[in-house]
Amino acid sequence: MFRDIDFLSSEANMYSLRYEPDVCAACETRDCLVKCQYMSLTSEEAREEKGKLLRGEDSRVLTDCVTCYACEEYCPNGNHPFYLIVDRQEEKGIHPVPKPVEKLQVRMMAPKGEAAYQEKHSPLINLCAFTPFEKISLQGKLFENISTVGGNDVFCNLMYLHFGRSSIIKERVPKAIETLWKCYVEKNLITEMICFHDECYGTYTSWAPAYGIEVPFKPVHFFRYVLDELHKRKDEIKRLNMKIAYQRPCSNRLIPETQPLVDEILELIGAERPSRTYDRENALCCGGVMRFQGRDDLADDVQRRNMDDMVATGAQVCVFNCQFCLLTMGEPVAKRGLMPMLLSDLCRQAIEE
Amino acid sequence: MGKMSDSIHEALSTIVGSEHVSKEPEELFLYARDPGTMQPREPDFVALPGSTEEVRQILLLANQRRIPVVPLGGGLVLSGLTIPQKGGIVLDMKRMDRILEVNESSRYVIVEAGVSQGALQAYLRKNYPQLKHSIPDSPPTATVAGNILIHGSGHLSQATGFHSDMLNGLEVVLPTGEVCQLGSCSVSPYWFARAPLPDLSGLFLGWFGTTGVVTKLAIKLYPNPALRDVMLFVTESEDYLPDILYRLTGTEMLEDLLVTMTSEPRWVEGMQMTRIHMAANSDEELELKRRVIKRSLRSYVEEKEGGFMDVLPPMKGSFLETPIRDISVFADSMKGGGFEYVGAIMPIEQFPKACREGASIAKRNRMPYVQIARIVGRAHSMMFAWGYPFNRADKRSLERAQQALDEANRAALDMGGIPWKAERPSQELILERMDPATRLLMQRVQRLMDPNGIMNPGNWQGDGDGI
């Protein structure tokens, strides 16, 4: 039988968030809450709520948070405010998403324990939970020499941040790392693992270190791989000369240092990313998680503002790097006249595939 | 039967043509069984009539010679209703497969009794894309007539009721050879309704072919909006479902409403997955429906006790299939070609108990299970199915399925439900509990309609001769 998800395993209890309460308490900006686009807090209100979070008291932040991850980026001290919120949600028994939905996802994505050694070679792309998208996402010359891994046993599990369930991540991530290392990386003498999704890269470069979990391989962001491949085929690139709107995924908030890579890629293929209100640090969530939470009115409003903003720039294409964002917003943006497209496909178009 | 057999075979050949009658063992073998748990029994002959007149002549012959006649549609009823319990002639209606008329303005179609669900669906898609009929989740070779006559249900049942409620009229051949038109077509050239006449179609609905042979029928067609969608609401307590179903049907926004509970894959065990189907003519209409539906269940979401799941495109495609292919996949999960289910027509308030009983029966008999409830009307009732696949090549697997089915039938009756398209043992259970005056009335009707007892004998007969 499935283990009850309220059960905190010993593995999960081994890891705790490394953050500095004193730094947080002394923070003058309180950007984590003041900059939040979904909760309206004055600096003073933010100070009060922040204090409650630090003391482990009830705070409206715990119930109002839409789990957009953005405060991880807003924090000027790298002190992991979002991870703290999620830990506190779990401690308080708060479920941002309806319990049956949460339970179903936790069960569905549970490790199967079926992974075994397989011969792999570099470049190795970790598809994580997105294996069903392999054929449509990793096709053409840019990906012709890759090997891939994916599936439940290597799933990064970071999505449970949206569910207020740090314990699931703490329990499963070390095992996923071990599986990746033992079954695919170590014996194949692979040193780098390319993370297809921002969430995976965020797991290994942000979340795992924040909880003191060691990552024995070098994670490489998908953008870096794509950029390197484009450079190799620089002569084949035909500049697209189009305007695009980029839908920044929530998990990219954990790794904002990768954003310049998007700009480099777009520059290389001749796609313009016009300045707009809801991009970069001010990006809006795709709305998918809000719908999971039953906040449809908010999701509608966020999507409408986001798409109005995209259309106003004259963008022809809405570019995604997250399949979940694409599934959530693909149809709505298409109805607004923007072609929904994955970044990798846009790159393929630039090399005339 | 010897010479008598030869003479009957010859007579049948004269009526339908020698190429449409058989007494060959390999064909009798096939017509002796269905995919369910009932024991096979071979007919003496199989005849495929091509017209009402041929049906009439066969019934006259059979009535004169006291030969049992078993009408057969797609042969997919699963509960043995077309297994010839006392031999005789299996009357396979598949040659009578013409779609005779579509009345677009009055939205009905007249078909012969052998027209399959798939053929009618394809015909309407090609020629009348603005119209559709309600399709059950049986394979597309199931016949329209067969499903109507067993009070089936399907993809429009939440909106429009049992398939038998969608019946406008019938042409039937009585065991004594008379051909009758029932419904408006008995008076008018139009097959538009059963009202306002005395409703004699009830003499053939739910009788399992024991009162005559239906040769033609008219069924209602419905608008076929361009847009369709499905929403999935997940809960983990069957106790919530009567209220959830009541709320959803109260929105008046749905076409179809199904709840599934399965033991496989294991990650869904214990969950109730409510599939909410809707259709619309525009994005705005569809969005409005989504909103109203979501609003109806808002309190469950706010209390975190239920939630809408994203139905991703590949899954959505399979959910929107008509019929739903996944059911056939589950039916074959044990391999060996065996599947049967107890479908009981039940009041909605018994959902929690039905759910728990079904899981408990499966556990006792060490079987996987799927439970599906299709809501009929505005939660006026439901068809609650306990499905048990089995491996026909494994005797113990078959026996476990039989045991589970028997327990499910009894449980359904204990809960105030009535087994649907009941196999013979289940018919006996129903008759045992039936009001004696009703049983007597059924007996009288049967004797009046079929004085020589030739029509599908063994059904609705209790454990003795007659009810």
What do these coordinates show?
The complex is a heterodimer of chains A (353) and B (467). Chain A is α/β, with parallel strands linked by helices and 353 residues long. Chain A folds into 3 domains: 10-91, no CATH class; 99-226, Rossmann fold (3-Layer(aba) Sandwich); 233-350, Rossmann fold. Helix content of chain A is 46%, strand content 8%. Chain A is built from 17 helices and 8 strands. Chain A has helices spanning 10-14, 21-26, 31-34, 43-55, 60-64, 70-74, 81-91, 99-108, 134-137, 166-185, 198-210, 222-232, 259-269, 288-292, 296-312, 323-335, 343-350; strands spanning 124-126, 147-149, 192-195, 218-221, 242-247, 271-272, 317-320, 339-342. In chain A, α11 (198-210) links the parallel β3 (192-195) and β4. Chain A starts with 9 loop residues before the first helix and ends with a helix. With 467 residues, chain B is an alpha+beta fold. Chain B has 3 domains: 3-94, 2-Layer Sandwich (Uridine Diphospho-n-acetylenolpyruvylglucosamine Reductase, domain 2); 95-223, 2-Layer Sandwich (Uridine Diphospho-n-acetylenolpyruvylglucosamine Reductase, domain 3), CATH 3.30.465.10; 227-420, Vanillyl-alcohol Oxidase, Chain A, domain 3, CATH 3.40.462. Chain B contains 15 helices and 19 strands. In chain B, the strands form 4 sheets. In chain B, strands 15-12-14-13-17-18-16-19 form an 8-stranded antiparallel beta sheet. Chain B is globular, with a radius of gyration of 22 Å.
Number of separate strands of chain A: 8
Q: Could you tell me the CATH topology label of the largest domain in chain A.
A: Rossmann fold
Number of helices of chain A: 17
Shape of chain A: globular
CATH architecture name of the largest domain in chain B: 3-Layer(aba) Sandwich
CATH topology of the largest domain in chain B: Vanillyl-alcohol Oxidase, Chain A, domain 3
Low-confidence stretches of chain A: 1-8
Q: Supply the number of structural domains of chain A.
A: 3
Order of helices and strands of chain A: HHHHHHHHEHEHEHEHEHEHHEHEH
Roughly what is the average pLDDT of chain B, rounded to an integer?
93
- Tell me the helix content of chain A: 40-55%
Q: What is the radius of gyration of chain A computed over CA atoms, rounded to a whole number of angstroms?
A: 20 Å
User: What number is the mean pLDDT of chain A?
Assistant: 94
**In percent, how helical is the residue content of chain B?**
25-40%
**Helix count of chain B, per DSSP?**
15
Largest sheet of chain A, described in full? 4 strands, parallel
Q: In the CATH hierarchy, what is the class of the largest domain in chain A?
A: Alpha Beta
> Separation of termini of chain B?
29 Å
Q: Compute the separation of the termini of chain A in Å.
A: 47 Å
- Considering residues with a beta carbon less than 8 A from a beta carbon on another chain, report the largest interface and each chain's count: A-B, 21 and 24 residues
